[in-house]
Amino acid sequence: MSRRTDRSRHTDRSRRTDQLHLNAFLKPPGEYLAAWRHPDTAADAGVNIREVLSFARTAEQAAFDAVFLADLVGVPFASEDVLSRVSVVNDSFEPTTLLAALAARTSRIGLIATASTSYNEPYQVARTFASIDHISGGRAGWNVVTSLNDGEAQNFGLDAHLDHATRYDRAEKFYDTVTGLWDSSDIAPPPQGHPVIVQAGASEAGKNLASRIADVIFSGIRDLAKAQEFYAEIKERTAAHGRDPDHLKVLPALSVITAPTEAEARDKLARLTELLPPQVALADLSYWLGGFDLSPYPLDGPLPELPVSNQSHTAQQQIYEDARRDNLTIRDLVRRVADDDRTITGTPQQIADHIEEWFHGRAADGFNVVFPYLPGTLDDFAELVIPELRRRGLFRTHYTGSTLREHLGLPGPSVAPGHVPAPYKEETS
């Protein structure tokens, strides 16, 4: 059994009676930085509508709650050598435009995209997601983010990214303005009342925001005990805001490579990770440490103390905790990136064991499933893991509702009877 799946099962003593939720995180040609080099991917998948539509339809056939499209509004700061070896935001579709296209070619699956509160205006975002909700017949979701880095800021005429506290203060006011517009007569009310709200902050400010406004929260926690602590804390914070804790769904990231046998799964992982150039792995580590250049430091030395990043505080803190706990050098950390230590590798039964343990252990209400390369790992998850989850009674066999809120079991602002329109369907001859 893979070391990544060697865990005791069912830490929670009381089994849940609800079913888990699965979101498909689509980042063509895959989340892994070298995915575009994999022989089974299309290197141009990020701007190939046929490829992306195929991924969305596969997820819909498997009855995923939604697909999710992340975004950055700037190219990360990196050398030309590194940028020439990765597939990043500069070769992918703008996500809300893409959602509109997917809405016309799918019928049931939810459609979630990122839009920054730092580099947009409320009316623009309110109108865009209300439009997508209408086009899709009530399947839209907005991932509320404050953006990450100076590269994004400079695309909008600023010298540097806004500081963390200012970004979250703006996000609070931004959200209130957007929802106020949805509730007003200035914009045709979205079919769901409000499109589903997603948030992913894990800092103190991020958790405060998510517990007040979010319907879904994404997290990147990989340790079961820490995930259980986060789950309990975010549910308590939600209740403190006067909300039903069951109306905020916690979906940790789950990156999976699976095959009928463990040996086959490990072989798939090995063939993927050997594609990653070492300079890209080092640059990726530097990025999550706030963009600090690690090249002057010895690879076999410890991770130096660096200033607190103005990007993701949580990601930087996690790297430091891992390095200190396991006494890791910079080379060790780079190797972890190259070996894709975030990915769980094993048989469908082992993957389902992990999912069931976290679900019944009150660490998750479901998962934001990440696909290292596409379409292979999505196809494998749909064909191998989904049937195993259904066999265990953990996941739906078919959709029972038509809106994303219905898929997630969420209430929404009151909507007039008959208001939800049928989604646009492309006519075919």
Describe the biggest sheet? Answer: 8 strands, parallel, barrel
Give the strand order, joined by hyphens, for the main sheet.
1-2-3-4-5-6-7-9
* Strands, count: 9
Low-pLDDT segments, ≥5 res? 1-13, 414-421
What sequence of helices (H) and strands (E) makes up the elements?
Answer: EHEHHEHEHHEHEHEHHHHEHEHH
Task: Walk me through what this model shows.
It is built from 15 helices and nine strands. It has 429 residues and is α/β, with parallel strands linked by helices. It folds into two domains: 3-9 and 18-272 and 342-408, Luciferase-like domain (TIM Barrel, Alpha-Beta Barrel); 275-335, no CATH class. The protein has an eight-stranded parallel barrel with strand order 1-2-3-4-5-6-7-9, surrounded by eight helices. It has helices at 49-61, 80-83, 95-105, 122-136, 150-154, 164-183, 204-213, 224-240, 262-273, 278-288, 313-326, 330-338, 348-360, 376-391, 404-408; strands spanning 21-25, 66-69, 110-116, 140-145, 196-199, 216-219, 249-258, 343-346, 366-370. Helix content is 41%, strand content 11%. Helix 3 runs parallel beside helix 4 (122-136).
Task: Give descriptors for this structure.
alpha/beta; eight-stranded parallel β-barrel; 429 residues; 2 domains; 11% strand; TIM Barrel
Summarize the helices and strands and which ones pair or pack.
Elements: E1 21-25, H1 49-61, E2 66-69, H2 80-83, H3 95-105, E3 110-116, H4 122-136, E4 140-145, H5 150-154, H6 164-183, E5 196-199, H7 204-213, E6 216-219, H8 224-240, E7 249-258, H9 262-273, H10 278-288, H11 313-326, H12 330-338, E8 343-346, H13 348-360, E9 366-370, H14 376-391, H15 404-408
Parallel strand pairs: 1-2, 1-9, 2-3, 3-4, 4-5, 5-6, 6-7, 7-8, 7-9
Helix pairs in contact: 3-4, 4-6, 6-7, 7-8, 10-12, 13-14
